[in-house]
DNA sequence: TATTGTTATACTCTATAACTATA
DNA sequence: TATAGTTATAGAGTATAACAATA
């Protein structure tokens, strides 16, 4: 406090003399988190667009890579989305020969999802793109800072009950 | 490295023995940032829905509160959205008596935007909701950790060229 | 002719619910 | 009757482009 003036800190950690409601005095760190998260998501979407993939397609492909053989219902539950939404997404990947539906002979209602060889190869490309993306977003941080940030975010994610590896955007807004 | 096995760290910072592509081994911290950001945005949307506001309405109201008297074009530029989109948003706030368009007598094409008394009051409610939201998302962190997280996020936001106080969701995806 | 604000249109994404095929 | 998957429909949100008023 100087001269009775309250002091604030703007987005960038710089002290700012108090004045009624400035755009640089945001509601809080959670807003910063939301803004930065949207930015990161948009930049990632641009990168994977070069692979002709949308973010939901990418997430589904990763989920199938991680847990092959699951039914569409099971995947829908994991991702937190209606099963009807998966149909189109799986179609779009299957049409390109990245994913295949294997009917279960014992219960012909079930479609087990697997990656094809092309799908596996693309999954590895996605991982590489993810690393590039990570460097582009967090490049201004030292390795140690990056690790600290990751640890803090991980704590929050666990506390908030997020499913590891799943973007909550599959759920409503 | 133990026994030639690479070691990974999952979302929650726990070491994980290497195995081919697990959902718990995410592409990187930027993904965690995007996921957590979407979560925070969704939780905030729920809170302000109680004030009968959508996130874009809230952001616009905050922007007008911070820089009153601006034209819609100027605000569109600040928020990074087409001016045509502002029309409906301003309408929705003006119909509720939260915002008013004041014609400029010198140049009757211009509409200067201002908050009404009700709008000012709501802006303060929004700030309070923002603080509650912040506590709900970051409640598991100590004060010092929270400050450190904020500082790291602020560094990234500045490095990435985000406009302080503006959610990039006004821009495309 | 240029600019502010507005309207019209079309497109994308998504959830809900109805439908089919299998059980 | 119940479940997996699919299709149909409808709604929200948004960008693009045409338009009207004013300069």
Automatic annotation (TrEMBL), chains A, B:
HTH marR-type domain boundaries: 29-158
Pfam families from the UniProt entry: MarR_2
Protein's organism: Pseudonocardia xinjiangensis
InterPro entries membership: HTH_MarR-typ, MarR/SlyA-like, WH-like_DNA-bd_sf, WH_DNA-bd_sf
Name this polypeptide is given: MarR family transcriptional regulator
Record's signal peptide: none
SUPFAM superfamilies hit by this protein: Winged helix' DNA-binding domain
């Amino acid at each position: 406090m100087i001269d009775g003036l309250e002091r604030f800190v703007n987005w960038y950690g710089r002290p700012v003399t108090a004045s009624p409601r400035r755009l640089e005095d945001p509601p809080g760190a959670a807003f910063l988190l939301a803004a930065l998260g949207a930015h990161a998501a948009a930049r990632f979407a641009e990168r994977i667009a070069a692979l002709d993939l949308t973010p939901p397609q990418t997430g589904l492909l990763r989920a199938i890579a991680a847990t092959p053989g699951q039914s569409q219902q099971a995947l829908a539950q994991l991702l937190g989305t209606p099963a009807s939404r998966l149909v189109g997404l799986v179609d779009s990947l299957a049409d390109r020969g990245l994913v295949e539906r294997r009917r279960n002979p014992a219960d012909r209602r079930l479609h087990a999802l697997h990656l094809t060889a092309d799908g596996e190869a693309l999954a590895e490309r996605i991982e590489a793109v993810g690393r590039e993306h990570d460097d582009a977003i967090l490049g201004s941080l030292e390795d140690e800072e990056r690790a600290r940030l990751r640890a803090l975010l991980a704590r929050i994610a666990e506390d908030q009950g997020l499913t590891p590896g799943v973007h909550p955007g599959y759920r409503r807004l």
